[in-house]
């Protein structure tokens, strides 16, 4: 049975936080609906999404709102909100991406997850083909059966607010409790959840996790500036502190030798972890303005990373120490975010643009191609993590509209 949160919560969840002052110091314009929009929308979060959005027609705002909150029982309220948004936030091109044409064909297959306002994210494919995701804002993880389209959601212990899901080889589903300093394992068959508390309460925000070939779980703790290791057999957790204060470890991957590599979201570095001793070796990247959300490792051992701070795609050769970077198609403010190496290419997204494009960088020709990522009939963003499927496709998401998306690579024409 799919679990839904109380519908009363939904009324507080139009996630385009509107407060009296926008991100640029402007007040919302007067007009019928202003106070209602402020009251309804600012309950979600303090980020001013409206001025940063792509803008929408009346029909577009209706579609977007419907992915976040159920106002069907109060059509008068809904109409006032939508009319105000359509009048004052129409379509715009202030953050339009540079879409690059190319020969690769893809198709987007979308699923809209059940519970509204959850900010679904970080999908991963299990060995049985099911797709799991984290619904961070509604404290749940969910499962899609792609063959039937059936979904199920599992509520987590209070306050977990999962940032990501990671799958073990025995069928267990692990989540990082980003708000209560825990890591948890769900047994899908029984629904039982085992919780592992951080040994240090300062390690309050477990972030991204990955298993090595021995079944050890490695994870980052971003704001606590730690890297962790959890042995599922013993339940023991060990934490180490990053070499540079404020590095904010974010993405983490394991290379072919079993060595973890970590991205620094707060500093210009990558960090190599000794898997036996947990000794850390910091690799300084050339430009001080560099920050790295995530990385991935190609079959030849090259480490590819997104230079989020400078709008570039980067490559580090761990053998020679050489660093190369390429400007992302949409420029220095494109803020590349998620990344995966698949299909002879590096795939990532430009999260600073509206719409949020999916970008492909061909490893042989060193050329780019990109596509706007759909969210139903609109484009809303953003992708925060992406992972390959077992057959070489790509799993992404659009957290603003609660969508999980499979990118079918080489599947005819670009479509939804």
UniProtKB/TrEMBL annotation:
A Pfam family matched in the record: Vgb_lyase
Alphabetized InterPro entries for the sequence: Cyt_c-like_dom_sf, Vgb, WD40/YVTN_repeat-like_dom_sf
SUPFAM superfamilies: Calcium-dependent phosphotriesterase (SSF63829), Cytochrome c (SSF46626)
PANTHER family attached to this UniProt entry: VIRGINIAMYCIN B LYASE
Protein name: Cytochrome C
